[in-house]
Amino acid sequence: MHFQSTDINFAIELDAHDELASYRDEFQISDPNLIYLDGNSLGRLPKRTVEYMGDAIERGWGERLIRVWNEGWIDAPSELGAKIAKLVGAQADEILVTDSTSVNLFKLGLAALRAHPKRLKIVSDVFNFPSDLYILQGIIDLLGNKHRLELVHSTDGIIISSDAVKDAIDEDTCLVTFSHVAFKSAFMYDMAYVTELAHDAGALTLWDLSHSVGAVPVDLNGCKVDLAVGCTYKYLNGGPGSPAFLYVKRGLQDRLIPPIWGWFAAQAPFAFDLNFNPATDISRFKVGTPAMLSMKAVEPAVDLHLSAGIDRLREKSVQQSEYLIFLAEQWLLPLGFSLGSPRDPEMRGSHVSLRHPEGYRINRALIESPPPAIRVIPDFREPDNIRLGIAPIYTTYMEIHQALSRIRKVVDKKIYEMYSAQRSGVT
Ligand SMILES: *Cc1c(COP(=O)(O)O)cnc(C)c1O
């Protein structure tokens, strides 16, 4: 894809030809002067969610009370799972919406290790989300410190080579687990290839789809993936802390032993048996009563993605990221920035990292500059990455143009020097 012009009229033209443009109206945009490029951390609020939640609270909880569970709520984890399944290439009965991504990773990771008791190696990488690595370290501790976690390294901090992955997987490997799209550089694995490498060695695969779902098409069945987890509050716009999902391939569902034996994991929770008898389907990976109000907020958001179509969303995301990189090459690389993401869109998710030694202060200046300056919200990841998240369902070309132009000004005019490099709580 080639762009020739840095002129604002070109951005306007690109927006005019965007066939997904109308989806932006589905979202609450409270401040037209705020450019939000952090939909990869917390997606925007869909307008229809407000009404949907109002109904869930007033009618569902307020009027129907306990009866509401039998009026559809109890089936929400699997019904919503069936919708997410369409976005990630899974069968309807292979996905469950439940708990948090971290907790789901714990449940599936532990179950996978116990399924292969003689193999003692877990393969992951230095790009994985720290929570994923901590959870794996905790699982190893829980199982008596017999296992070891091998992290595949990167030579450039941007990609992980397939050869390095291949070298790490061997006959002692029980589990291969990566983030499909890396949270910092946006590097995206070839899921089919890595899963095949793992299977050739007899290992199970567990993919974290937190930075993929809703932005990148995933084909779990086509890639023969065993296990996966993912988040719903990023590109899927399910709301702060909305429940995550887990995927267990059909053929594994009655073979893996769930690590947490909660009553919702039992075959008949309301039989109130005194001994645990696990459900034979994916329900065995439930634990307790679902967080229904948060779960309700996920549904209208997922519906929007299904309606826009994941292939069209990906197409727009690639075009917008290419446009962003084009502007960065014209305006920002001469000012000391470097590209912290793969240049090849096939190897990149839906955000672009730009690195600069003053990244932290630049990020603060973008977020905090008082009006009339236009405000831009990206986020910052140590040590020097400014992440610009493209949420193709609502991001416009105009916003990308304005954001990059603002970054240029903040650096060119040294506006960032007015801000402290002292880190604040959530970055
Ligand atoms: C965002 C994210 C998580 C978040 O986990 P929570 O349990 O929801 O806090 C986990 N893994 C990856 C790869 C993520 O990007």
Task: Please write the string of helix (H) and strand (E) elements.
Answer: HEHHEHEHEHEHEEEHHEEHEEEH
Helix content: 25-40%
CATH superfamily of the largest domain: Type I PLP-dependent aspartate aminotransferase-like (Major domain)
Q: Which band does the percent of strand residues land in?
A: 5-15%
Number of domains: 2
Tally of alpha and pi helices: 11
Instruction: Give the names of the bound compounds.
Output: pyridoxal-5'-phosphate
Adjacency order of strands in the biggest sheet:
2-8-7-6-5-3-4
CATH architecture of the largest domain: 3-Layer(aba) Sandwich
Structural class: alpha/beta
CATH topology of the largest domain: Aspartate Aminotransferase, domain 2
| CATH class descriptor of the largest domain | Alpha Beta
Task: Write a brief caption for the model.
The chain has 427 residues and is an alpha/beta fold. It has helices spanning 8-16, 47-64, 76-88, 101-115, 130-142, 162-168, 191-200, 292-308, 310-332, 359-368, 397-412; strands at 34-36, 95-97, 121-125, 148-152, 173-179, 204-208, 227-230, 245-248, 338-339, 351-355, 375-377, 379-381, 385-389.
List keywords for this structure.
single chain, 427 residues, alpha/beta, Aspartate Aminotransferase, domain 1, Aspartate Aminotransferase, domain 2, seven-stranded mixed β-sheet, four-stranded antiparallel β-sheet, globular, binds pyridoxal-5'-phosphate
